Amino acid sequence: MYDVVIIGSGIAGLTSAIYSARAGHKTIVIGGPTLGGQIINTLHVENYPGYKDISGFDLINNIASQVKELGVEIVSEEAKEITSDKKVITENNTYSFKSLIIATGLENRSLGLENEKKFLGMGVSVCATCDGNFFRGRDVAIVGGGNTALEDALYLANICNKVYLIHRRNTFTAEKYYVDKVYANSKIELCLSEEVKSINGEDSLQSITLTSGRELNIDGLFVAIGKVPNSKLYENLVETDNGYIVSNEKCTTSVPYIFVAGDCRKKSVRQLVTAASDGAVAALSASKYLEREK
Ligand code: NAP
Question: N or C: less crowded end of the chain, CB within 10 Å?
Fold first, then answer.
């Protein structure tokens, strides 16, 4: 029986673990198959206090080693179910808890097209910094109009032959800094007021067709259309709003023994520092709950 089970090994979950262990609670992190959450794909983190420039991978590994030194176990298992009798079930194990912190973050939004999932790793990607190098010197396309899509388009333009940037509007929501750079980059061709209608190929991506009917022969398609909470795990358990867990500044939820931290919490600012802040608050709230229940 754990005092605190934490689901999620991003910065929110790991910060919760630090605070929970330091408060003397028996704590475990169910971290999913990959340690670290969204930030591990970011090459340069320049807005986390104390570091002028650090990769997301290094930042997470630093925090994870701090967590382990405090005696907290981090298991690479995926939580499949949270039961109403206070258990988290993974494929091979069941973890009983007195209190639970949900820090499951967000997952990539998909276009919902046929072949999109089938061709993941076979031409379709959700991470330019992870997979861009496979398409060195080739023609690729990226979908989206936010900071991620434009930042990735610029990254890909450095290594690929040509980059089509496909966006369903004729203006971008990305910051002006990225928009100006994209417009000035001769390797990026804008396909505005366009959407991807189909992803074509037999066993791997060969081309895409746009809503205008134009076909683009490309080797790589990067989908960068935002993130959504992975709410299936908890939506029948706690109050949610569009998949985000409803909470207050104490990171409590509609269930007294469940707390929430990070991007899956309903809130206005989703940054590394606010995820870390949530992690601390959720763990301290869980700690108060455990004291009350003694
Ligand atoms: P985002 O800002 O939510 O943008 C999503 C983009 O995808 C929008 O252009 C949206 O178009 C489009 N889109 C959504 N659903 C679509 C669909 N079904 N089909 C086609 N297009 C679709 O997501 P993000 O760019 O990943 O950014 C997420 C957060 O991280 C933001 O707060 C961002 O500022 C931050 N971020 C910051 C940095 C940085 O500071 N360097 C870098 C990356 C990300 P519509 O406008 O038409 O909805």
Answer: C
Residue 181, token pair as written in the block: 């750079």
Q: pTM of the full predicted structure?
A: 0.82
Q: List the chain domain ranges.
A: 2-107+227-292, 124-223
- Is the CB of residue 106 less than 8 Å from the CB of residue 228? yes
Both tokens of 190, joined, read 């804008």
Structure confidence at residue 40 as a pLDDT band (50, 70, 90):
confident
Top CATH class of 124-223 equals alpha beta
| Domain 2-107+227-292 is found in CATH 3.90.320.10 | no
The predicted-structure confidence for 101-159, as pLDDT tens digits, reads as follows 999 999 999 999 999 999 999 999 999 988 999 999 999 999 999 999 999 999 999 99
Q: Which residues line ligand 1 (CB under 6 A)?
A: 109, 111, 143-149, 151, 167-169, 173, 195, 224-227
